[in-house]
Amino acid sequence: MLSATTIRASAPAILATKHLPLASGIRVASCGLLHGVQTRKFTGSTNSFFLATTPKSKQERPLKAFRERSFPHPVYTEAQMNDIKIAHRKAKTWGDWVALAAVRVMRKCFDLATGYKHDSEIASGNKTPYGTNAFHMTPQKWLARFIFLESIAGVPGMAAGMIRHLNSLRRLKRDNAWIETLLEEAYNERLHLLTFLHYRQPGLFMRTMILGAQGIFFNLFFISYLVSPRTCHRFVGYIEEEAVITYTRAIADIENGRIPEWENLLAPDIAIKYFGLGPDANMLELLKVIRADEAKHREVNHTLANLSQDEDPNPYALIYEDGKPHPTKGLDFMKPEGWEKGDIDGGVVEEYMKPGKEWKTGGKPSGGAPTGSGTTTTTSQVA
Ligand SMILES: [Fe+2]
Ligand SMILES: [Fe+2]
């Protein structure tokens, strides 16, 4: 029986995302689950298994009003989001090669777990994902992949931030403002995950995979970060390259009409509020903003891997007072392969490294920070 609040789905293993127009004008989603006939409520439920699957429907439980976010999402323009490209930073050091090899091994396992394949020419950037039907992905498979991907992607920023936090406490010195950027990345990835959970609730198999993967991945990453944080940031940079490839494929699938179920699928409220999307934002816009986030993570982590882990300030936390290209939280000046130290506003990062600078010694900055190429950069807001 269909009603405004409840729908019974009788087709097992059919996906949860086709909208049906109702006479009342309210759109609800038809859903099928992996195991037999299920009833899904669109109202808020205390049982997380029955969380609403219809984004932005009038039946969806309103989000609680919280105070302002600690990590507000930057605003991206449509042109900036459309301009995101698949890119690859060539491995230059032994650490880079180790990171790249680890990502390739993980990718194989990940593809296996989520039933994903794609043309290797697309991954290498030699061929666009547009106009090919090879390795067709269904909406179910995409969502399984996104959920698994995002549940893992939220780990490195938190683990790295935690280690640097403990390091700062233990060694009684400043962190050079890396922690906040790392935690912000973890928060951003978790919001990606929560967004996709509005479209599909994973079954027992996926939950078990996520549990096992997190247990293994967190511990491995934690130990690896203690040994070589630089290699770990490179590793995350390479993972984010893969994430951009995956989302580019999904976006191309929608734009080529290969996922008709998603053409009018609305973004959930949690995503509209966090990403600052319009009230009628759809899945395509959602994937574009998430892909832009991944591209930013790609740049940030490649950049951090280029810096001295103990000495350099986080260039994303500095304030640049002129219009020259420099690292930003938004998409203003993108460098997919990361900023080299010497590229950052005429080498301002190196300026901090000069002997005798207060930053290096962990002392309290007095007044303006050291400058590079006439750029004024302040340190007073970072720790
Ligand atoms: Fe993500
Ligand atoms: Fe990411």
UniProtKB/TrEMBL annotation:
Low complexity: compositionally biased ranges: 372-383
Cofactor(s) required for function per UniProt: Fe cation
Gene Ontology CC entries for this record: mitochondrial inner membrane; respiratory chain complex
Membrane disposition: Multi-pass membrane protein
Record's cofactor remark: Binds 2 iron ions per subunit.
Positions of region (Disordered): 355-383
Name of protein: Alternative oxidase
Species: Tuber melanosporum (strain Mel28) (Perigord black truffle)
